[in-house]
Amino acid sequence: MYRMLRAIYPSPRVRQVQFARWLLLVGLVLTACSGTKEPAPTIILGFSPPDMQYDFTSADSTWDTFITSGSEALFRVQNGALEGAVIADRGYIWSLANRRYSDSSIRAQVRQTQGSRGNGFGLLCRTDEAGNGYYFLISSAGQYAILKATPDAVDPHPLKVWTASEWLHTGSEANELEATCVNDYLVFFANGHFLAEVRDPTYTVGEPGVVLGAVEQTLWVRFDDIDLRQATIAGVTGR
């Protein structure tokens, strides 16, 4: 199934996002300020057993696979993973699981296999077919962000600005990412470590997904071992 781009060059089937050079600049600045560790989450979450698990050992999957017009971007199941690619400076592309959730968690192994440092890629929560929803992103240079894409804005709005983290593996090393949306609470983990939490009431239901956007060079990213779970708020930490 085709998914539109949020892209630098608009067309009738393309939406803008000005993220590429800005991501690189902010990443370089914030790397110098990475000494302060993020606090622990304030909310205790509860999870069901995995509702769906995807290891992509066969080409059969509910996830979107496609090649865009002009072959500027694609998603495909290849060599035991969901693989995405997009040429440089065309914004974000995404693949959705085609399962709707309200309160849920998505976890995946994510690895950039080709492309320059500073690309953005990661997980989606409560997303619709037009790409509106919550973006939980990392860069290959070791930063993360939580963004919100809405129909009335061409650029996703930062709920958590790009920030350096010592917990993120850089370059072509794999990262295990987990994004959870419960009520208005959004929380992001990487490699078992807390990155950030925010609150936003805009979206209450939608699809989980994966996303990527490239700078300078064509980007290839592999998404594997994806788990989808129901999530609840079990309590507060007292922080």
Task: Describe this entry's structure for a reader.
With 239 residues, this protein is mainly β. It has a single domain, classed as Exo-inulinase, domain 1 (Jelly Rolls), CATH 2.60.120.560. Helix content is 5%, strand content 50%. It has one helix and 18 strands. It has one helix spanning 20-31; strands spanning 5-7, 14-16, 43-47, 52-54, 66-67, 73-78, 81-86, 92-96, 104-114, 120-127, 133-139, 143-149, 157-164, 175-182, 185-190, 193-199, 207-213, 219-236. Strands 3, 4, 5, 6, 7, 9, 14, 15, 16 and 18 form a ten-stranded antiparallel sheet that branches. A hairpin with a 2-residue loop joins strand 14 and strand 15 (185-190). It starts with a strand and ends with a strand. Mean pLDDT is 86; it is low at 7-34.
